[in-house]
Design a protein that fits this description.
alpha+beta, OB fold (Dihydrolipoamide Acetyltransferase, E2P), 2 domains, seven-stranded antiparallel beta sheet, two-stranded antiparallel sheet, 4 helices, 32% strand
């Protein structure tokens, strides 16, 4: 998928406005499509441009992102140069709302740096029948007081140790937020989770009421 044109004919096009770069990119790809003998023919697709005439159209377009297996929209000023790094002002990523599932804490491992003495790396599971299956790992989302309280709980509710990893009693439920799911043969659950993080500690929810693997499978995104 081609989004931008940074160089053409040996010239650096990054300082040029996006409108010029995009027009040159479209001309280049149309030329490739018209030359079937070219080794690049059929290998590149031009990223779609979505019409936006008013801000009222923005939310309906953002809601279309899930169907395209995309994280959201990229809004780019037509006069913007191509800047390296996370520069702000010209481009804006408008992400769709994350997916959420309630999962059960299964394993914990000590963190690094200033949190090396605290259990801050967590593995969560979902129900598959009467069993809990590992679903995702998350390392962020709790504040310092919650991390300290959970560390104490983990130490007093450990059931097994596997080197640096502790298995805990499956009692604590956490709401996880994530950007999407895809099928994966590398994971026991059959699912790879994109950008998982802890949204909140569900102290109000007992473990048997956590979500199921079936609920996660229902959220699987179509392949683009």
């Amino acid at each position: 998928m081609a989004y931008d044109l940074l160089e053409l004919g040996g010239d650096d096009w990054r300082p040029r406005p996006l409108q010029q770069r995009r027009a040159a990119l479209e001309h280049l790809l149309h030329g490739l499509a018209a030359a079937p003998a070219s080794p690049a023919a059929g290998l590149l697709r031009l990223s779609p441009r979505l019409p936006l005439d008013s801000w009222q159209q923005l939310e309906p377009l953002r809601r279309m992102a899930a169907g395209a297996a995309a994280e959201g929209l990229m809004l780019k000023a037509l006069g913007s140069p191509y800047l390296a790094g996370r520069r702000r002002g010209h481009w804006w990523k408008h992400k769709r709302d994350p997916y959420t599932l309630d999962a059960v804490l299964l394993y914990a491992q000590a963190g690094s740096g200033r949190r090396a003495n605290l259990y801050t790396d967590y593995t969560f599971g979902l129900w598959s029948g009467s069993d809990l299956v590992s679903f995702a790992k998350a390392y962020s989302g709790l504040d310092d007081s919650e991390i300290t309280a959970l560390d104490r709980w983990i130490r007093s509710h450990t059931t097994e140790r596997f080197g640096p990893v502790r298995a805990v009693q499956p009692l604590q439920v956490f709401e996880l937020a994530f950007e999407g799911l895809q099928r994966s043969t590398r994971h026991k659950s059959g699912i790879a989770v994109r950008f998982p993080r802890i949204r909140r500690w569900r102290r109000d929810k007992p473990a048997p009421e956590a979500d199921t693997l079936e609920a996660a499978l229902a959220l699987l995104e179509p392949q683009p």
